[in-house]
Amino acid sequence: REPVQFGQCWVFSGVLTTVCRALGIPARSVTNFASAHDCDNSISIDSHYDADLNPLEDNNSDSVWNFHVWNESWFRRLDLPDGYDGWQAHDATPQELSEGVMRCGPAPMRAIKEG
User: Fold this and answer.
1) How much is the pTM?
2) What CA–CA distance (Å, rounded) separates 3 from 34?
3) Residues recognised as catalytic
């Protein structure tokens, strides 16, 4: 038997929603289309080309996926200032290291909306 080595965001999101709900944590899957992935924190999706309009692939790490699915869960944030309780975004399929760990969130939806 071979271990499972691959999965898709909608599968991981569904599993995480199920686990959270089984633990009594309100959770939901969130989907979108044309999902941007900004790799250099420029808050834009950038494409770089040379003078002959050839793509500079080493500089083109940003991407747009046809869709993505992540999660939101409702809980209190005792580690943050007042007002950041409620829906928290987190992604079961993060694409980059965060403090040495593949993770994304939880991040308060209020903080995300307010920038």
Assistant:
1) 0.71
2) 31
3) 9, 68, 91
